Protein 1
Amino acid sequence: MSQTVDIKELNEKIQRESSFVDMINIEMNKVIVGQKSLVESLLIGLLSDGHVLLEGLPGLAKTLAINTLATTIDADFSRIQFTPDLLPADVLGTMIYSQKNEEFNVKKGPIFSNFVLADEINRAPAKVQSALLEAMQEKQVTIGDETFKLEKPFLVLATQNPIEQEGTYPLPEAQVDRFMLKTIINYPKKEEEQLIVRQNIAKEFPTANKVLTKDDIIKARDVVKEVYMDEKIEKYIVDIVFATRYPDNYGLEKLKDMISFGGSPRASINLSKAAKAYAFIKRRGYVIPEDVRAVCYDVLRHRIGLTYQAEAENITSEGIISEILNTVEVP
């Protein structure tokens, strides 16, 4: 009974603390038409301290959405356009010799921001990818002999174009795994596109206002951690991830030859974090199975390796996730 009271109290607290979600949504919707799942993914990444990879064709407002989110929060924002000739120093910074003082000084690069937009991340060579990897995982940057901690909140929001293969470097599995979510962005609906056209030919393009500070985000992240997750939900998450590794244990023998590797423990951790953040966005103090299912595709789609057989039969990671969600028992 006491637990029920706790949940009630927690629910009220989460409803109070999550009121800013509506404010961010209002500001984002001024600029971004439709793309509800894109805005949701960015919010989940922001609230659960996870990096987000956006994949979609050019012109679908990926960069605009990230830019707008950074505008709503009083924080530093930098954009790095990834190109094949980019060097690690262009991202991290470098040592510059000062003749006046006869010593080397550190010139920090664009990675020293709260929001880093890595535009067309798959265009940069491996050296740049590995430099970015340390910043994403360790939240620190090493220049010369010095190591600098990155200021919180620190979020890498990367975009990649799925159609062009020339001049692109596929992201290594280790790096893709560092992204909490991979969101696929599709074309807008007909009426949405009409509104987009109207906005873009109007006298003034709408702009978002600042509604939050960096401290608000850090505080909100602590509250998200308080969202209650029952043991049954934990077991459900682990079952889903285990089904990607050992599908035959869950009556999914047909998937055994389709999956070359399943989700790592990082998949289970991120699924739990994202489900909590999703419950928070929905202004609830506890996680329900629908929260897990809602974030499952974005958390798992880049963590399931497909075999040649799966590719030959046009089976996608989304199809595999659907099969798993339809089979694994819901608590």
Note: The first strand starts at residue 51 and ends at 56.
Protein 2
Amino acid sequence: MSQIHVSTTINGDEAEFLCDADETLLDVLRDRLGLTGSKEGCGTGDCGACSVTVDGRLVCSCLMLGAEADGREIGTIEGMAKGEELHPLQTKFLEHAALQCGICTPGFLVAAKSLLERNPKPTETEVRYWLAGNLCRCTGYDKIVRAVMDAAKDMRRA
């Protein structure tokens, strides 16, 4: 099977890779590019652990082919922090203990960032609705929602 050459932008940096036609974006990110923050929780797009943004749109990278990234702008959890400076959402997840095992955390953070870029002042209901595609087996969601609400408040002040 011949491989497909893909040129894309990932977290603001130009990237090129070769991938098989049936290889998912998640597999390319993890196995070919070493960006292991996105996790495979289900492989069917039901859990959100592999959430990334593609041209600003939230997607499950386990459902997108790597070849489809050609010419697109990809955002992953690795692109949230600026060097050693955590994104406000990352800081609030730590402050609110909104993570336990960590498998779902990158997906929740990417999804929450996507929400706050669209709606900087969400209601609790809007946060819960937006994050409904992300599953967590450890936290019970309340700490996650509180962290997102607190981050939104701080980000509006900044």
Note: The first helix runs from residue 25 to 32.
Protein 3
Amino acid sequence: MDLHSTNVVTQLIDEHDRVVYRNKQGCDLVDILRGLEPFQDSIEGLAVESTYNWYWLVDGLMEAGYRVHLINTAAVQQYEGLKYTDDDTDAF
């Protein structure tokens, strides 16, 4: 989940790294949970970018029963050969 001050880009991938869900929406926990709901039983974990405003999202996801991983983006190695980055590649 690529988190910003006013929006979050969520991508869910399957075991073959195929995107099965992608959504860019406002920072509203109810809406975010509503989008994840159809996939809840198959989600093994959610990775959330550790920006300055991550607390509400991580707390809300954990309260809803999701396993959450807080990610330090400075420590994540990008895919080799990646020429640019945007919200979708960051979320992926």
Note: The mean pLDDT is 86.
